[in-house]
Amino acid sequence: MTAKLIDGKAVSQKIKVQVKERVEKLAQHGIIPGLAVVLVGENSASLTYVKNKKKTCEALGMRSDLHQFPDTLTEQELLAKIDQLNQDPQIHGILVQLPLPKQIDEFKVISAISPEKDVDGFHPISVGNMMIGKDAFLPCTPHGIMELLSHYGIDPSGKHAVVIGRSNIVGKPIGQLLLQKDATVTYCHSKTKDLASFTAQADILIAAIGRAKFIDHTFIKPGAVIIDVGMNRDENGKLCGDVDFEDVQEKAGFVTPVPGGVGPMTIAMLMGNTLESAEKGLSKTK
Ligand SMILES: Nc1nc(=O)c2c([nH]1)NC[C@@H]1CN(c3ccc(C(=O)N[C@@H](CCC(=O)O)C(=O)O)cc3)C=[N+]21
């Protein structure tokens, strides 16, 4: 048996077609969803992602403004910029690309974004509402993963989901979203003893570790659903995940590739959140 591919690229395309149709409907009311992306300092990776977001926005008929600053930007200057974007009626979503330079407190910056424009879903109010199952912008990568599971008819209910990694933007929220779909959730992390004894129980394994090809067939049980959130570079500098994609093929039931799995879904869900924010703005004016 070889693992079925979870094709994030194809699913993200489907989502983007739906977004585009809804953007066209909004345009009839004179509203163009606007996403402001703030980039402080620049490394090639963040520039790629930011350009990716801008290109996708414009392909869907949305507006994307890039605000780029040197890495010497002060926290006060960034907070002032966010305040200005919060007030701008043309801007429906604000994304401040992480990580930020060390002189800037990330929590302060994220908390300064108006929750109505928090299309990353990182704001404490978004996180709090997500935790208690209330309406909120969901963080894009976890939300994209849930969309992939649903698209492939993988119902988390009653399944044992094992999450490796406990970051605020992926590990912690994806566990909560799986719990809300009645999975039994185990969180593993760098201090977990005998990691394989947990991952080998996983019906659904979420790898968000940050170590290239760390998860091979010895860590998983036959038929497991493997979701690879990793974004690493292998020995040849090629983008690869936390999972050894080739090595798990014979044993896994489903597996996402890197690239072409969770990454494109992150972008698609960001577009959806920005559109939703603009639609909420319309319903408020009605
Ligand atoms: N406030 C904030 N929000 C973010 O959502 C955010 C961030 N900061 N900082 C950086 C990370 C990274 N990130 C990615 C999004 C898409 C791909 C993506 O599309 N990856 C493609 C490959 C792209 C390539 O070729 O490099 C794929 O996996 O198929 C990757 C990474 C969002 N991030």
From TrEMBL:
This is Bifunctional protein FolD. Pfam families: THF_DHG_CYH, THF_DHG_CYH_C. NADP(+) binds at G165, R166, S167. Pathway: One-carbon metabolism; tetrahydrofolate interconversion. The gene is folD. Residues 6-120 form the Tetrahydrofolate dehydrogenase/cyclohydrolase catalytic domain. It comes from the Bacteria. Homodimer.
